[in-house]
Amino acid sequence: MTKAVQKITMSPSRDIPFDKLVLSQSNVRRIKAGVSVEELAEDIARRGLLQSLSVRPVLADNGTETGKFEIPAGGRRFQALSLLVKQKRLAKTTPIPCIVRDAASDILAEDDSLAENMQRVALHPLDQFRAFVALRDKGQSDAEIAAAFFVTPQVVKQRLKLASVAPALLEIYAEDGMTLEQLMAFTVNPDHARQVQVWDVIHSSWNKEPFQIRRMLTETLVRASDRRAVFVGVDAYEAAGGTMLHDLFQGDDGGWLEDPALLDRLVTEKLQAEAETVAVEGWKWIEVALDLPYGYSHALRSLSGDPAPMTDDEGAAHAKLLAEYRALEEEYAGQDDIPDEIDTRLGVLETEMEKIETRPLIFDPLEIRRAGAFVTLDRYGALAVYRGYVRPEDEPVEETAVQNGTDPAAAGQGADRDLADGHASAAHGGTIIMSGGGPKGTAEVLRHIDLVAQDGENRVEGQGG
User: Is there a single domain that holds both residue 326 and residue 367?
Assistant: First the structure.
């Protein structure tokens, strides 16, 4: 005999005026969690109530309905509606969509409240990421999406970035084959092929840490904190057509430069320009190098110069810095702990005073004509110029050596050499700028520097007369 299938009866739905609703003591939610009631109220105000309240008739002592309805499931929505009523943005008599449970139901009110919260399945993060993409594709801006879901535009950018990872890796993440932190690491480089290559290497390795993923995805790039990037400047690099990568999920020291070749060209050009500026001073030669070799000045004579005096403006600036430094020292003298901001300020003052106190050297103009300089970068990316080095072949010789034929220059082995009286030889026409051991743009540079050198000679002779 076939057993009859019991038919399911759904509870009816109806609109009930807000002022007829009360929060049930059977609602099991006691602890605040998730989106705040204020944010939920704003969401309801924007889009309306997406989910009806589950209610039951409130019975009098004699079992008759009072016309009121209690809410065992949907308490946070009711609180949000109450806030809108309090703010006079919602009328007390506004009809609220409700599912009405029979007062005589065998299912307890606590059962309904517990089921609504426990049967709910949270949206998978990947579904959320893709939903944000869909909203943007349909014309919503990052700011509009952020406002609609009570997050910052930065959070929206992060979730959109996560959705842009290689589809193959997103599927692995969806199947719990990858952590969210690992997925975040893959966003640092938009190259899908490279992302997949890195995962193929990493997933069978013992080291699957996000930092390792980031390292592998950026190993051919240049950090913005690299001294070459600091010297050129990211703005100049981007103006020349260079592109950047950024990590939206953790500090990246300004990001990574994607085109090392372009960066190196810009570094070379800027160093060359700086060298031409130094050449105006009248040096015989200038060597330009990103890194100077160990012992670069070995066998070279170093000129001794006199520190340039401070200008009136420099002296006044130094005095002002010193006065502030001494005032802070006196104010906090004897205290065991100096506030961090004061300690930092003292350090800044010391640095600024040291910059002024480090004076450029003034060299003998006659020595400058036979000496050279090195133009390079220090370890922080600042320009470093080391002036006043004389090569052995450029040292002055006694006239007797020339007359006796023992001078290499007289024998044709060193046509650049200076005579003892300080006059430059005929071949000493201008500054030679060298890069990587050879002349850099020699013809063009010499034409420019010759004019400067001649003008400099005229000024020196005029001062001597």
Answer: no
* 6 inside domain: no
pLDDT 10s digits, 2-61: 677 778 778 889 999 999 999 988 888 777 776 688 999 999 999 899 999 999 999 998
- Give CA–CA dist 71/75, Å, rounded: 6
Task: Give pLDDT tens digits for 68-119.
Answer: 999 998 888 999 999 999 999 999 999 999 999 988 887 888 888 888 878 7
Q: What is the mean pLDDT of the chain?
A: 85
Residue from 25, 11, 92, 106 nearest 58 by CA: 25
**Neighbouring C-beta atoms of residue 183, cutoff 10 Å:** 22
Token pair of 89 as six digits = 């943005």
End-to-end CA distance of the chain: 133
Note whether 67 and 177 are same-domain residues.
no
3-state DSSP helix/strand/coil % of the chain, to nearest 5: 45, 15, 40
Identity of the residue numbered 402: V
Structural domain includes residue 263: no
* Domain final residue, candidates 94, 118, 142: 118
407 pLDDT above the threshold of 80: no
Q: Token pair of 367, please?
A: 């020595």
CA 225 to each of CA 231, 302, 381, 436: distance values in angstroms, whole numbers, following the listed order: 10, 33, 9, 25
pLDDT at 367 over 70: yes
Contact 165, 183 (CB under 8 A): yes
Residues 230, 326, single domain; the answer is no
Q: Read off the DSSP letter of residue 3.
A: P
- Cα 22 → chain centroid: 52
Q: Give the residue from 172, 244, 242, 249 showing the smallest Cα distance to 214.
A: 249
Q: Is 3 part of any domain?
A: no
Tokens, residue 264: 């190196």
Beta partners for residue 257, in sequence order: 222, 244
Number of Cβ atoms within 10 Å of the Cβ of 432: 21
Return d(Cα 19, Cα 96) in angstroms, integer.
10
Contact (Cβ atoms closer than 8 angstroms) between residue 53 and residue 78:
yes
Q: For position 70, which CATH number holds?
A: 3.90.1530.30
CB 222 within 8 A of CB 257: yes
Q: What confidence tier does 299 reach under pLDDT thresholds 50, 70, 90?
A: very high
Residues 201 and 82 in one domain: no
Q: Do 98 and 146 share a structural domain? A: no
Exposure of 280 by Cβ count < 10 A (0-12 exposed, 13-18 middle, 19+ buried)?
middle
| Coil vs helix vs strand at 81 | helix
100 CA to centre of own chain: 55
In which domain, by residue range, is 370 found? 270-306+361-464
The total number of structural domains that make up the chain? 4
